[in-house]
Amino acid sequence: MSNLYGRAGALFTFRLVLQPLVAGVIACRAGLRDAREGRPPYLWSFFKNPAARKSLISNGWKDLARIFSLAIVVDLAYQLIVLRWIYPLETLAVALIVALLPYLILRGLVNRLVQWKARRSGK
């Protein structure tokens, strides 16, 4: 666990800002697309509509595959250079935090905000 805390002030710190930022941009684009097409928020749909889960995962993974893979590669490089060992579970945890979490939060939030603004301006 101390390895995870030590990453914030160590070599490759830029990735802890850059990767969530890139995931956020991708999520905003997807959220805008969802709002234009009148779809409900992504994460909400995932939990409320079990029949659509497979297509939602496929859709989200298309957006996230590169950034998630890059997060894993950069974290592995960090581990080899700084820690001189590979910790696979830590790599997955970091990739989930810097890539997947911002995407899931922002995609639904952008969708809701755009739909709310459209409803408000339509009145």
Write the layout of secondary structure elements.
Layout: H1 2-6, H2 15-36, H3 42-48, H4 53-83, H5 88-122
Helix pairs in contact: 2-4, 2-5, 4-5
Helical content class:
over 70%
- What's the helix-strand series? HHHHH
Biggest sheet details: none
What is the gyration radius calculated from CA atoms? 17 Å
Strand content: under 5%
Topology, number of strands: 0
Rounded mean pLDDT score: 86
Structural class: mainly alpha
Total domain modules: 1
Distance between the termini: 52 Å
Unreliable spans: none
Q: What is the count of helical runs?
A: 5
- What's the overall geometry? elongated
Question: Which terms would index this structure?
Answer:
123 residues; mainly alpha; 5 helices
Can you give a write-up of this model?
By secondary structure, the chain is mostly helical. The longest helix is centred in the last third of the chain and has 35 residues, at 88-122. It has helices at residues 2-6, 15-36, 42-48, 53-83, 88-122. The protein has one domain.
Give a quick rundown of the structure.
The chain is mostly helical and 123 residues long. The chain is 81% helix and 0% strand.
